[in-house]
Amino acid sequence: MAEQIAPTRSNLLQRRDQLRLAQRGVDLLKRKRDALIAEFFGLVKESLAARRSLAAASKEAYFSLFLANAWDGPEEVESLNLASRTGLELEISIENIFGVKVPQVRPPEFSGELPFSPINAGARTLDAAAQFRRLTEAIIQVAATETRLRRMGEEIKKTSRRVNALEQTVIPGIVVQIRQIRSVLEQRALEEVTVLKRIKAKLQEREGQQSEAVTA
Amino acid sequence: MSSDYGFINARVKGLKANLLDQEFYSEALNSGDFAGFTSALAQSPYLPELEEAQTRYSGIRSVDSALARNFYRTTRSLLQLSDGLPGELVGLILLRYDLANIKAIARAKHAGREPDDTQVALLPAGELKPAVLEAVAAAPDMAAAAQALLATSTPLRTAFARAAAQYQSDGDLYTLEIALDRAYFTAIFALLKRVPAPASFERHLRREVDATNLRTALKLRGSGGADELFIAGGREIDRSVFDAIAADPSPAALQVLAGTGFAAVGEVERLGAAEAIIRELVDRSAKRLAADPRGIGVVADFLRAKEAETARLRLLARGKFYGVPRAELAKELGDA
């Protein structure tokens, strides 16, 4: 339902200001969307590379675990696994890209120190552990890139929705309102002119009658 | 039980005759899938253990369980048939399984794991029986586990008790494990001093010490060696070779192996490949030892062959289960 507004000159000026503001907003939002899209495509490349690294790291890690279980034995693999305490601490900071808050995950730093004695520890198992550390880094890299990508995608969609709302609803609405106010104001001005003309005609008629009386 | 090498080695040769031949590996390698592999295994001496394992587990776990059970029965029979000096030497050869089991229990205690979690990490192929290991694993903490182990006669018990007492104050698993590793080698050399072991067997054990030091140095590459990680008693890998390899991660550092029996290790880059070469070199040493029909070498060689067979079967089982291409599996099998 269209908003009812008083057809006054001040409202007309206000609506014109709103229209200018909306048009400037559309312009800014479009520029923001273009910048986000450019950033998004950069991230897509990064994300695809991270996915490829993840696939390669995953293949290596599981194959090395396969070999460790075969050669060192599942008991040795389980034994070394017992020594490690589970859990991984990640450092996450928030980065602002064109007003979008995206998480920045710093890859974990694995300590080179072994919690157990390397003497007699299965070489294949240690190799598998190293491969799984690389896999963990690859997983975190993919998670970080894809989270950024998702946030950027959501922001692009949000910005597009805003642009569409301004272009297709808000601006046409203001234009209609301006047109209505202007039409009413023009009609009023026309009416005023007509009234003034009639008054003028009446005054002239009266003046004519008075001059005729004086002559008679 | 006998202390006569003639009797023991005749029995061991009987066990050796049960090892799988090349024909089995070809058949298993050509089997289409995991079911084909288990059918082939069911026609081998592993049938009783496989049937037993399949009632409790399925897939890879059933094969792993059957192989572990078979290996356990083999080592148990070796311990049961030998007595006197040969018995002590067999116990010495199998001591590394006790060491591995004690370390697994220590790791579980350190990480606060439940005793059930520890069971999958135990292979009771040494002198410590499964019931003993279960009792030690069920102890509430490291000190109680060490206390439980003191009731046994394993040469590692005192070292574990001392290391556990130290662990109570510093909570350092690494130090505890180093103490156990060093106690293992100390026990070996103490026994060799005490009993008249053949010189060839002593040479083989020193070769194993060299192999252990070389493996440790390769694992440490680039981070530098440490006093506590070098085991004295080897013949070719001395402290300077150990330090040179541990300190420098570049391939050039492996040139120090030139002129030693481990020179071939210098030609590979990955730890896994180096491990395969070292294992082959120690296997050769064990084979030379087996040439003496009235020595412990026959047992040592048989155990290494049995370990290699177990590893090959685990490899084949996994390869078939996960559908690893035949060529890749054959290549890996060649390294086993």
Task: Please tell me about this protein's structure.
The complex is a heterodimer of chains A (216) and B (336). By secondary structure, chain A is mainly alpha-helical. In chain A, 77% of the residues lie in helices and 6% in strands. In chain A, strands 1-2 form a two-stranded antiparallel sheet. In chain A, strand 1 (91-97) and strand 2 (100-106) form a beta hairpin. Chain A is rod-shaped, with a radius of gyration of 38 Å. The relative contact order of chain A is 0.15. The mean pLDDT of chain A is 90. In chain B, helix 2 runs antiparallel to helix 3 (34-42), helix 3 runs antiparallel to helix 15 and helix 5 runs antiparallel to helix 6 (84-110). By secondary structure, chain B is mostly helical. Chain B has helices at residues 5-17, 22-30, 34-42, 47-54, 59-81, 84-110, 115-119, 130-137, 142-149, 157-170, 173-194, 199-219, 239-247, 271-289, 297-322, 326-335. Chain B is 69% helix and 0% strand. The model of chain B has no long low-confidence stretch (mean pLDDT 90). Chain A binds chain B through residues 64, 66-67, 69-71, 73-76, 78-85, 112-121, 123-124, 126-127, and chain B through 64, 68, 96, 99-100, 103-104, 107-108, 110-111, 113, 117-118, 120-123, 173-174, 177-178, 180-181, 184, 212, 215-216, 218-220, 223, 229, 231, 270-272, 274-275, 310-311, 314-315, 318-319, 322, 324, 332, 336.
